[in-house]
Amino acid sequence: MIQRLSAEAFGTFWLVFGGCGAAVLAAGVPDVGIGYLGVALAFGLTVLTMAYAVGGISGGHFNPAVSLGLAIAGKFEYKDLVPYWVAQLVGGILGAAVLYVIASGTAGFTAGGFASNGYDALSPGGYSLVAALVAEIVLTAFFLIVILGSTSKLAPAGFAPIAIGLALTLIHLISIPVTNTSVNPARSIAAAIFAQNGALGQVWLFIVAPLIGAALGAIIWKALLSRSDA
């Protein structure tokens, strides 16, 4: 079990450090910043690379919502849910902490939003609570459908990390302007801890909505899309 939990912690560390790091350190560099597209790709690449690196050890969840969805779909043991959540939270917070140390090494540093998620005034595009809630639920549901489909016996073997990484990239391309994209409570909590814009007061939505979305995605998969031999 220690190897599985370590894999989840390292994977979530990489997701937060790599994805949020791209947003905090590289997105806004004058003239050469990577922008929304680069940040979206960075998040996708973190999942793709760690799924290949440690996915065979832990299943490569790196996300409490994914763990819940897989449990509901019958692909993960409920008894392992809380230990996975703890490992993911620890890994994510450590990733954000290391990022904060690096980011604060420049003159005049202020954490600001620190790649945190938000709605209303904290939304990059000023989107409402309802818009944020719907976006996070729908996108997390589809994320679970992609995960379950690409890891089923009917899918080509060995390509699941690519499909999942590209799905997360697409999710970010859609929703960075809306919520700065969560679909992952561990990522949201980790960034909100270090943000200085009041993100902790809104982080509840980015815990609740992804968990609801993951549950819906798993239920839809089981009811409408899965086969008993897949």
From TrEMBL:
Domain of life where this protein originates: Bacteria
Keywords from the named record: Cell membrane, Membrane, Transmembrane, Transmembrane helix, Transport
Compartments reported by the entry: Cell membrane
InterPro entries for the chain: Aquaporin-like (IPR023271), Aquaporin_transptr (IPR034294), MIP (IPR000425), MIP_CS (IPR022357)
PROSITE patterns per UniProt: MIP, PROKAR_LIPOPROTEIN
Primary location recorded for the protein, binned into one broad class: membrane
Membrane topology: Multi-pass membrane protein
Parts of the chain that traverse the membrane: 36-60, 81-107, 127-147, 159-178, 203-225
Family matches, as PANTHER family: AQUAPORIN TRANSPORTER, MIP17260P
Family per similarity comment: Belongs to the MIP/aquaporin (TC 1.A.8) family.
Stated name of the protein: Aquaporin Z
